[in-house]
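User: Predict the full complex structure for these chains.
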Amino acid sequence: MILTVEKVKKSFDGFIAVNGVSLAIPKGEIWAIIGPNGAGKTTLFNLITGHIRVNEGKLTFKGIDITRMPPHQICRLGMGRSFQRTNIFPRLTVFQNIQAAVLAHRGKSFNFFKPVDSFFRDETRALIERVGLKDYGETVSGTISYGFQKQLELGIALASEPELLLLDEPTAGMSVKETHQTMELIGRIIREKGLSLLFTEHDMEVVFSIAETVMVLHQGRLIAEGSPAEIRGNLDVQKVYLGETR
Amino acid sequence: MLKRNWFLIIITLFLALLPCTESRFYIFLGTDILIMGLFAVSLNLLLGYTGLVSFGQAAYFGIGAYTCALLMKKAAVVFPLAFVAAALAGAIGALLIGFFCIRLTKIYFSMLTLAFSQIVWAIVFKWNSLTGGDTGLIGINFPQYLDSSTRFYYFTLGVVVVSLYILGKVVGSPFGRILATIRENPERTEFIGINVKLFQLIAFMISGFFAGISGALFGIFNHSLFPDLLYWPMSAEVLIMSILGGMYNFLGPAVGAAVMLYLRMLVTSYTQYWPLIMGTILALLLFFFPGGIVGFLKSQRIFAKGKR
Amino acid sequence: MNLPDPSFLIIQSLSGLTYAMFLFLIASGLSLIFGILRVLNFAHGSLYMVGAYLTYSFVSLFINAPGQFWWAVILASVSVALIGGIIERFFLSRLYIREELSQLLFTYALVLIIGDFAKVIWGTGQLSISRPPILKGAIQIFGQYFPEYNIFIILIGLGIAFIFWLILNRTRWGRIIRAAALDREMLGSLGVNVSRLFTLVFIIGAWLAGLGGALVAPIAAIVPGMDVEIIINVFIVVVIGGLGSFWGTLLGALVLGQVISFGILILPRLAIVFIYVLMAVVLIIRPWGLLGKPLQR
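Assistant: Here is the predicted structure of the three-chain assembly.
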């Protein structure tokens, strides 16, 4: 198992956001978490990546206990993540965005005197190409389109050479075409590098097209887990989603 | 790129030849500008590059100033040692204060830097026996080999040029780039594997180190020290210099310092209402020239596109 | 060490309480503005100072008229409220789309500008006015004399605190204000005219500061520098009590009032260091103050 979550609980001011969730993701697989808004998906992600602390429960990544680990250490262990609201470095160029991530990953961030532009040019360019932003290297990242920013986010996450990728709504706000392209890109990268993927989505087509296992979160609890076909036929899930079309 | 380097060379030459004017006045102004310029650039490492709005930089300036002066006056320490001690004191002060401050964000961070700065001020103000308190520490002489305004000016010029060179390297290095990502998005920076707090603390220390150097220079230049250089309007003033010059540009704050000190000298010879002028300039800056002087000039393409 | 007379302690405590009321008036305005507009108004001390100066001017204008002081207080505080409204409406509001530092620095620019304008208009000397005839006397408390005017201040301060509590908790506007403090973005979608709300909040905050200045006029020296001197203490109050918390501001003011009042007696040399240490300690251990809301995350 590359990631295990054991009976994790988190509450804010009395409101229980995540209520005893457990899951275990085997290496190299693609898992999806779905659920209505407010089900706790992003909170669960934040708990896994260490951005917030669990109240109860245990998190294990690659066999290592990460329950109390700060986010930057978890990242260094080999977890990469994208965020729901685009999280890039807006005033830096696309190239600088990815280069920073490469710098951090390769442990060169404590270099105080060499000019930064010469570092890892090839690796950065390769990553820029891989996420489909070849001609935008010198563009200030805050000015590119939303879809491209999401691709950049993916590039930043990949720069840390993760073994497990956590993607929080990777196709949010995208058109049908953009969604297709993005999912194709993600799928290709996952296969090429043998990465494990855990993602959340609202777009059911996306989920059912690439996920091997789907989990359903509702009000902080995992109410179902299984293959896409099993989930599609699950009555509880349908009840929860009644009224939610997509 | 080339244009910008030529400009720097011309400025440095101009500064080097300034004492040839034989004008004590200009030497005096020049020394003042150099010292405050370094101070402002050191602050900007935190403000413009790391995104940390510190209201308490005067603390490290003052710590440096008083450390150097007191060591020389009361402990008969030779200037070079006192000078280095001042820089280190500034760095250590920044380490201690920064350690607590970086655990907070935004306005709370700023307020804590202000609180600490006021604590340092209050200690200096009240510790009469050591610092002379309100009556000040007077009679700080030029050190042995720098016993004229001109000599001290050249020394200051040398120190400031070297310091700016070092700071420039830091800012253009991978470390500096990570500071920029921290400014842009601390949460994201955590998740590219960076211990954000550690980097912020190091930035704090570097900033405090050079603020301490400028303080030490200031004490000797002024031949006296009073606690009000630690009072919060001083921190506000250097913050304004940074923004006036342009906080997203490395030398912007130095430009801001130069302009502000020159303007102050002009205005105060005509009127006592310098704060009114300064406040108005600040307001105009905020409304119409958010990039500061250098930002404005850059947008007019007066300089070739430099790197960030 | 001689134990001080208990009546002396009571008087000292009441002095601290009086000062606390002024701190409360100004701090509640500052806290209100911060809670809703998310702007830390450096110029709040300046508004306080203008309130004091204007009171002096109005009193001089209405010389020998009956009730001159009270009219002056009303006019001065309302004038400051109007000044606040103009500041917010025509200047500060244009900076809302920019980052918070710009707004903060603008308020500091105001400190500089207002400070000098005050010097231009009223000069650099120390001004003073006398207390209103009704409150000129002193009453005896446990054998010591305590000015009636100060008692009045204490009562007024508590009265205003009570009125504000009523408004905040029992009226529609109060509910809107409390909601705005929690979630500004939501408010627009609820049909509230947010920009008008902001102006109104700033006006109220300014009025409070102006009132504080007006009421302090008879018992303090009206000098340049009183703006800078008070604002730092106001910051300490809102830090201790919690930025944006109403009761916290009152509590913070009461605490600081007593600390300053007794600190100067017990440890005169360290008192001034102590209040800043207090500010730092609160920020380190409990940044949201005694009664504020814990920070997100």
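The interface with chain C takes residues 51-52 of chain A (CB under 8 Å).
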